[in-house]
Structures are given as C-alpha cells and as structure tokens.
Amino acid sequence: MRQLSDDLYLHTILANAPGYPLIWNRFLLELTRQLGFDSGALLVTDLNDYGNSRFLFSAHISKEYQAQYEDKLNRLDHFNHYVSQHPQRVFCNQNLPADPAAETKDAFFAPDQQNYRFGVALACTRHHALSLLLNRRNAFNVTEQQVATRLLETTLPILQDAMHKEQRHKINSQLLHHLGDHFDGYIIVDHELNILFSDPIYTAFISQLDCVHIAGNRFGMKNPAMEQRLLSLIANNQEVGSVHSQCQSCQISLIPIASLKNLYQWECYMEGFILTFTHEKDKNPALERLMHLHSLSRCEAVCALHFMKNPSIPDIASHTYRSQETVRNHIKHTMQKMNVHSQAELMKKLLTLASL
C-alpha cells in the first residue's frame, strides 16, 4: 500500500510538472528518494554527436559538474550512449556486458563517484533522445534492481506524456511571444518536411485545410509549386510571415526554431522549422458576402479585399502569390459582376460592403 501511495504521488508530481522547472526538479528529488539514489537528471542527447548531451533538469548534481559534463564528460558517458539508443527500456549498468571497444569504466567520472546507475530513454526525434539517469555510490542488490525497474517502467508512460506537454508549453509560449498574435496550430518539420513534433489537436485541424496534406509522418502542400517554394525557404533558413495565401483558408508562417529564445535546452528541435497555421484573416464576413451577393469566386473575392486595402496590382499579386495578369483578370471580372465601371467605383462599393 505504501508503494502504491508513493507511485501515485510521483505521478501526481509529473502531471503538474510541465511548464514548471521547480516541479520537474521535485520529481527527480522524489524519485531518487524513493529508490535510494544519490542523484538524478533528465538529459537531451544528440544521437549523432554525444558531445551535445545537455541537462534539462537535475537533482543533487552541482552546476560545476553539469558544466564539466556538457563540456567533455558527455562524450565519455557510454552508459548514456547505450540507453539513448534503446528507448523505452530500463537498464542497470551492473547488468550490461563489458564492451571491449568502449573506453574503460574510469573514463567517465560520475558525480561524487556515483558509478552505479539506472537509465531509461524516450525517443524525441530521429536524431535525439531524452534520457532519465539515476546514480548512486553503492551497488544494487537483486531486490533493489527489481524495485527500481518496476517503478521506472510504470512511470515511463506518465513521464512521456509530461515531457510532451513540457515541449508543447515551451514552444507555445515562445511562439505567442514571437508572433505577437494567436495561431490555430503548428507543427515542427525538418529540411525535408518530415514532421519532428506535432500535437494531435493541432494535427486534426491542419489535416482539414484545403491546401495541405499529411501522409504518415510527412507534411506536404497540394500545390507542387508552393511546396517547392516552402522547401526553398527552408533551405535558405528564412523566416517568412506568410508562406502562401493560395487556398485562402489559412495563413502559413515559417519560423526557424533556432530563432526562438529561451527554449531551455530543447536542442532536439533546434535545427527544425515551425510551421504555424492561422485561419486566413481574409476569411471574414465581407469575403462571404462578396461571394454570396455578387457570385464572386473565392479567388476573385480575396483579390477584391486586398484591392480594398491597397489597390496596387503588384502588391496584391505579391501578397496572394499570383501573377499580376491573374490579379488584373480577377479585378476585371469582379468589376463586371459588381456592375461598376472604374476602380474608384469598385473601391467605394467594397468599402460600403465592408462597413455593413
């Protein structure tokens, strides 16, 4: 009964940890207390370069040691390397066979000689893992290993959910600050539009948009030219406030994630790109009235609203990603359908309609 109570308390801490570093540290403190460890840490590890392993949260590990680890010791931490390569499995270093190809055990200087360790990892992206490492000075007996393994296995699903919420909280808060406006959803993609991070709620919204499609773990745009333009922007590491307005159901913004600040060591996404999705601001009652009252196509209505804001054909073409000739034709057809004979009359009628 006591063990069940301890487990529930640990899970309750995790449920409240996302967004609060002190609560994450409290989780590690409680976990090390329950299992009789001397220290613990949550790390993000680059599977291609172990020298990029970084602390997210820790318990009973000094700042000086963390700095040494991130500077050099992480390259020698073969236990973390092994754990990171085998996500969802609990390991104790006492049970791992010696690896003749690896450095000697003494190559890694654990904090305060805490050489007996447990570890478990969660997959983050194809190239990064999130590791939970627990350390102590004394060797484990069989019963201690069984208890630690059971608790870590039962805690792993709750930890994974809490980590996902932590990532979402950090990115959401930074996006709101960066954009200075709301957004309806976002995903994080790599240079080839493979999805690195997504939220099921956002994905459900994005999947319903007219201009995009999500197949498996890849994002794409239904217009091949727009997809090529997006890939070109990503290749040039550009930040763009509006990627396109072709379908007029949404606005897509491109943000290199490295341009965001204070992501608290979430290096696993630092080389990725955020695509935010917002309902197109042109999709408003005036747009619907133009289509309904004057039988305008959606493209004609969108160009008309852009014309009302700024009657420059080149500017309209630039903002809607159409050729100037296409815009001229849309404006011409709009004038015919609205029964006006000059652009001045068109402007007056559009302003009147917008004020209704």
TrEMBL record:
Residue ranges of domain HTH luxR-type in the record: 293-350
UniProt cross-references to SMART domains, sorted A to Z: HTH_LUXR (SM00421)
One annotated GO biological process: regulation of DNA-templated transcription
Pfam families assigned: GerE
Domain of life of the organism encoding this protein: Bacteria
Gene Ontology molecular functions: DNA binding
Protein name: Regulatory protein LuxR
Organism this protein belongs to: Methylomonas methanica (strain DSM 25384 / MC09)
